[in-house]
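User: Okay, second chain of the day. Same drill as before: sequence in, structure tokens out.
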Amino acid sequence: MHSHGVASDSLTRLTDEIVSCFACPRLVAWREQVARDKRAAFADQEYWGRPIPGFGDPKARVLVLGLAPAAHGGDRTGLVFTGDRPGDWLFAAMHRAGFANQPTSVSRNDGLKWRAAYVAAAVRCAPPANKPTPEERDTCRPYLEREVALLTDLRVIVVLGKYAYDSACSIFGVRPRPQFGHGVEVVEPAGRTIVCSFHPSQQNTFTGKLTVPMLDAVFERARVLAQRKANNSPMK
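Assistant: Same drill. Structure tokens below.
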């Protein structure tokens, strides 16, 4: 059953705006080139090739924030983290922590549903070499600000990597900014907790810099914080 309150309508509007964005010429050119040239393994698939909106539960208590979609992951499937290796790690961990109804997601319509969680990226288009410019990051920032404002039950922000951490600190007005590290927690001025995790990129998971127990610990902590904050807040 879908709710059609103001929040979900507004998230729907925001999603429509994000998908139809052409603000950054370099990113537009790249995402369209990737969608045209494709990777051989996915040659028979139609790539999404547009910006990737956040997705999840409008009543989310936990926001999971990444850097940007992957060229042959999100830019192909239309869902951030869906269809790439970091997503395999992320969705399995979120499923074990009770935030997802299934441990994998490979395509847009494979049945993945979030429980009390919302997943987004600081930059909505796949950038060349996974490196958005500061200008591109700043151009994209209002989308995240609006998302955060619409997720009125938000209690916890899990940031995947330093780039997402810096974006979150900037949006939430965290000053001074504690040094990023796995498991670091920062309470922002409005009382929500930012929980840091190393990004589940292959360079981190292959080298053992990020392990399954480390990622599980972050989402277990997020679950505890989300419940505690929710229980402490007045009944709506």
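The chain is about 40% helix and 10% strand.

User: Thanks, on to the next one.
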